Amino acid sequence: MSDLFYVTSPIYYVNDVPHIGHAYSTILCDALARNARLRGAEVFFLTGTDEHGQKIEQAAKARNETPKAYADKIGGEFKKLWDDFDISYNRFIRTTDSDHELGVQKAFEIMRANGDIYKGEFEGQYCVSCETFWNESQLLEGGACPDCGKPTELLKEENYFFRTSAYQDRLLAWYASDESLILPKSRRNEVIRFVENGLEDLSVTRTTFEWGIKLPKSANDPKHVIYVWLDALMNYVTALGWGTDEHNMRFWSNATHVIGKDILRFHAIYWPAFLMSLNLPLPKRIAAHGWWTRDGAKMSKSKGNAISPREVADAYGLESFRYFMLRDVPFGQDGDFAEKALIDRVNSDLANDLGNLLNRLLGMADRYFAFNVAAADLPCFDEEKKQIDAIAATLDPLFEAMQMHRYLEELWKIFAIGNKAVNDFKPWEKMKTGASDQVAELLVFMANLLLKGALALSPIMPKSCDLIAKSLGVTIDAPTRRSLIDRAEWIASFTLAAQPPLFARIDAPRLTEIPTNAEEKANLITIDEFKKVELKIGSVIEAKRVEHSAKLLLLRVDLGEDVPRQIVAGVGEFYAPEAIEGTQVCVVSNLKPAKLMGFESRGMVLAIEDKNGLRLARPETATANGAPIK
Ligand code: ME8
């Protein structure tokens, strides 16, 4: 790792209060920053708020406030949350900070002077919510935004444009230069495909609203404000003083941007193109994480199911929350916040595997050795020590590749070795037979193991790991990390200290239930519930009436299985048997068999009902029997 490390979170729009998606982005960055510091790097960690744009102007207006007063309030909530969460940022930037505004104007000036910004006319469908223009082919049905699904509006403006098109080749060459530039790799491919399809120039000013950074005086065009994304992206360098006081710009040599997958295009295409235009180096890594849902549903204000990170941290402890978020979801994939999963993690991983191991060590050290344990270098646990050092050596690359869930999974193997060693060794029996030197050997082994574990876990659970280290009489810092993890050393003696249990078992959920209204609760099913229904296409190979029934037809339906199925269908009042024979129908194929008028029915044929009665639901064109309906 380079000696300098720069990590940035997205800057959050102030039109919404913080929820767990925001917390995830910030916590990921915090873990990266803490890890780099522990490895001895000089770190600059940037977070902040994105305060300009039409969306914020509208939100402020709706509350009868000025945009600045509104941004002060909501931006303040973000900052307070990160402070209360002990997020180790070096700067909290606001895009209304004067040094940032000056930097953005300077960037506009340079881009214009070098011919990358020019004036033109723009007409297109605009999504205010995403602050993005879309062309016709990208819109959903009815002109809705392909990202958020909200209606777009037609905008016609005289705009300044950035010549993104001029950077297509250089961008492609940049993506090809480093496979891990954009993580996860699947998203890198998406970006490459998008750029290969051709880039259109980007409109980078607006005249239809006022809440934004004005163009530099040299442009002499006071109607325009700078597009919020040009403004926002520049924060990554203005925060280091670019354009004003550049003394922190040295961190720019090793920059990692952590973002959500929703804003990858801005970061992987427009941002590097802007940087190329400014003749600045490009970031080293753009890491796009997935999207958090709650109990399988998208979180939104209107549904009222967004989760407040503060509420989760208050209920379960901040560090358990951090651990859960990074452990439960593979980086880049979407994650579901289910309270039960969080409780299971706390109980099994934290209270059981880690917490108990520490409690066992401290309990025995107190009881048998008055907290002072020293090893006589007996040939004990040599195999386990080798295994632990081998696991520890695999951890750093996983962290660097943003594979935190794998990192933690591997790390937990170290604690498992510790728990197994105690169980197998049965120290309580050894003490009875007077082999206390062997028990001391075990306890020194356990203390080393827990210390190595705590050093590796510290970026994710810093406070708990400090307490673990304190109970082992050691401090978590870069030299200790270097010796125990990088050089795989083992300490020969410890003076331990009592420590109340760090992680209590959780018996019942602690969050207030999601406020869904009663009607929604009654009607909604989850995707998993829907998936239980097997629907298939089948051909009716025979149809006849069930005697004494006007309604029922007895069908034999080929569902692509060895033997056709007998199905009783209640469509006899609307279809003659001969009108059905030889046609295709849609069938629920995993319905429990039932008897109707003495005939077994093994499935159900689907029909559509309206005021004219029933019509069979059928595939649009001839389809293979047994083809699934999804
Ligand atoms: O996009 N799950 O701000 P923003 C996971 N201002 N992450 C989520 C999430 C969810 N449900 N919801 C939000 C912006 N996020 C711009 C960024 S950067 C120069 C400008 C995270 O407040 C995710 O990282 O709408 C997303 O990209 C970020 O919050 C910012 O969202």
Explain the layout of strands and helices:
Blueprint: E1 4-13, H1 20-38, E2 42-50, H2 54-62, H3 67-84, E3 91-94, H4 98-113, E4 117-127, E5 132-134, E6 153-162, H5 168-177, E7 182-183, H6 185-196, E8 202-203, E9 205-206, E10 225-226, H7 228-233, H8 235-238, E11 255-260, H9 264-277, E12 285-289, E13 292-294, E14 297-298, H10 309-316, H11 318-328, E15 335-337, H12 339-369, E16 372-374, H13 382-400, H14 404-425, H15 427-432, H16 436-457, H17 462-471, H18 478-486, E17 493-495, H19 518-523, H20 527-531, E18 535-545, E19 553-558, E20 565-569, H21 577-580, E21 584-588, E22 594-596, E23 599-601, E24 604-605, E25 607-610, E26 613-616
Parallel strand pairs: 1-2, 1-11, 2-3, 7-12, 11-12, 13-15
Antiparallel strand pairs: 4-5, 4-6, 6-8, 9-10, 13-14, 16-17, 18-19, 18-21, 19-20, 21-24, 22-23, 25-26
Helix pairs in contact: 2-3, 5-6, 10-11, 11-12, 12-14, 12-16, 13-14, 13-16, 14-16, 16-17, 16-18
This protein binds ligand ME8.
Residues 10-13, 21-22, 24-25, 50, 232-233, 235, 259-260, 262-263, 291-292, 299 line the site of ligand ME8.
